[in-house]
Amino acid sequence: MTCKAINAARAMMLLGILALAMPARAGIEDALQRADALRTSDPQAFAAALSELDALEAQATEAQTLRIRLLRTYQKALTGNYEIAIKDAIALHQEGKDPTLKFRAALLAANTAAVTREFSLGLRYLEIALAMQDQVPDANDRHLGFLVAAILYTEYGQHSLSLQYAEQLLALETSPRIRCPARLKKIEAEWKLGSGAGNELATSQAIADCIAQQDAIATGFLRGQLARQWAAAGREGEAVELLESHLKEVEATGYPRLVGEIHSLLAEYRQATGDPSAAERHARAVLALGVKDAYSLPLVTAHRVLYETALERGDLGAALGAYRQYAEADKARLDEVKAREFAFQLSRHELQQRDHAIDLLSKQNEVLTLEQEVAKKSSQVDRLVILLLLMLAAMIGFWAYRTRRMQGQLRALAQTDGLTGLSNRRHFRERADVMLSRCTASGQEMALVLLDLDNFKHINDRHGHAAGDWLLGQVARACRAACREGDVCGRLGGEEFAIMSCGADLAAAQRIAQSCREQLARIDTAAIGHDRPITASFGCTTSLRSGPTFERMFAHADAAMYRAKADGRDTILTHVEPAPVTVLHRGQTSA
């Protein structure tokens, strides 16, 4: 074969290779776009599209390989593998060169970090993504930044900011696929802010919009929101019918947060409509999802439903176990709410510090420039430089003072119940442990009084949550008035309060409870339109009766308090072992 023939053969072979490679590359690009479109609309089809990409990955370019990795990371987040998803998203953001891929990876890291309560990490990557938003060429990709900001600020409880970003996004000309979750975030934020409680038409229109976009996850959350609106209007039966009729669609998404939320709503509404067995079944379905979302409201609701259904059927052992789990889950959720508020405030504070640091560096650069000129100027210029340095030192001292003051405010925020001003559950426990150790060391007896408001849910339902919040503040004042000097008073959560008193025997505990009971009866509820006196059920014990450990004292006082509630409310019960509990009815004292 001649040289010319060999070259011709090589050219033909090269053309054949290119002819085979070009359709493959085109196939990968089509598969990438198809998989990205199916991400939130059809989880099973999305998984199948990823399997198709697995078969084509060997022929992908480096950039396409990174996009495939990003889609796999989305799948990990959607199926609850949050920690791995965060790690992979951060790695993609660091390794990628394409602005769009880096932007979307940062948003995914921020979004998933909020789910795992890594609040500072989530805010940091949200700021990173928003800072590079202008580098993203496609408008729909850029709009994802506003959407994730709306989602994240919902997670952080900053509903005004969430509403602001959602409305900003809906004002833009964006794709219907992005408008669907944006409308979800707007409706959720309005509900949380109390301005969208009756806007059922907007919710129904948003559901229809998301169904048209085949966004099963957003559709599921919107149906849950519509069910809340119906239940708030007393239409629990319709809410149950709506959620039950679409439960299989929700479970088909495989998204743990959505599945847990819908089952918890069904558990709550089934119980409200008098179907405890169905309520218990849905509550256990929430628990069966595992601990991937251990601080969620659905988990708290599930434990509460199991506790109340066990109590209704008279299974006190199961009720006590379920109550303990409910109390632990509720405490964890309340601590998590404090933690995310702390993280948000800390992030804002760090951002301010960074801006101030930049200002200080700029001023320092100005000072250095002036110092170069000082050598050529007179003593008058020297005095000017000294004055500038003193101003800089004063500024640094001022911001140091502001920083210390902010830290003190954040510490107080972490220890205080924002509604009543009393110690929160965690801080009350810490102070009670210190007091118990001090009393035990000095040979003094210590008393614990627990109280739970009677019919508080009825007051909330009849007069509104604002009235309930006002009443809790009045109850806190009544508890303080009943305390002796040196006593510790706290709100343990919901309508439950506690008083710890050093040097108090059982008679003193009863006097504290009776004093608190009298203070509650004096509350003037005319301001909220309530025409009945405020009462509570009390449980008392002492370290002499229960032993010098907080856990036993709390368990005994808690059991006495719930027996008081079961005995007809407005009652004071004391823990007595082994003799029966002594009942104190209105105006009575124990023997």
TrEMBL record:
The keyword Zinc does not apply. Gene3D superfamilies: 3.30.70.270. GO terms for cellular component: plasma membrane. GO terms for biological process: cell adhesion involved in single-species biofilm formation; negative regulation of bacterial-type flagellum-dependent cell motility. It catalyses: 2 GTP = 3',3'-c-di-GMP + 2 diphosphate. InterPro entries: Diguanylate_Cyclase, GGDEF_dom, Nucleotide_cyclase, Rev_trsase/Diguanyl_cyclase, TPR-like_helical_dom_sf. This is diguanylate cyclase. The keyword Membrane applies. SMART domains: GGDEF. It comes from Marilutibacter aestuarii. Residues 444-577 form the GGDEF domain.
